[in-house]
């Protein structure tokens, strides 16, 4: 795999992952009650804990995308 191909792959991967993150945020923001009702069928969760779990998961996902996609893409873009 060439550097140019890897750079393109990481760039597209970062865009797709951030699109997933935005979709997750939008669905959670506009359909929170439905998602909460769906999850409480399986797990005994309070609303505050549910919000905390989703917020922490979104933050972790965002951090992983940043570390494994965006930073390597930026480094390769600056080097190539």
Automatic annotation (TrEMBL):
Taxonomy, superkingdom: Bacteria
Transmembrane segments: 6-31, 52-75
Residue ranges of domain DUF6868 in the record: 1-79
Keyword vocabulary terms for this entry: Kinase, Membrane, Transferase, Transmembrane, Transmembrane helix
Molecular function terms, GO-annotated: kinase activity
Protein's UniProt name: Signal transduction histidine kinase
């Amino acid at each position: 795999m060439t550097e140019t191909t890897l750079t393109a792959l990481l760039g597209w991967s970062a865009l797709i992952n951030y699109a997933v993150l935005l979709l997750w945020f939008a669905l959670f923001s506009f359909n929170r009650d439905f998602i909460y009702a769906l999850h409480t069928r399986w797990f005994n969760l309070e609303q505050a804990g549910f919000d905390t779990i989703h917020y922490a998961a979104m933050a972790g996902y965002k951090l992983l995308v940043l570390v494994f996609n965006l930073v390597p893409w930026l480094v390769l873009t600056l080097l190539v």
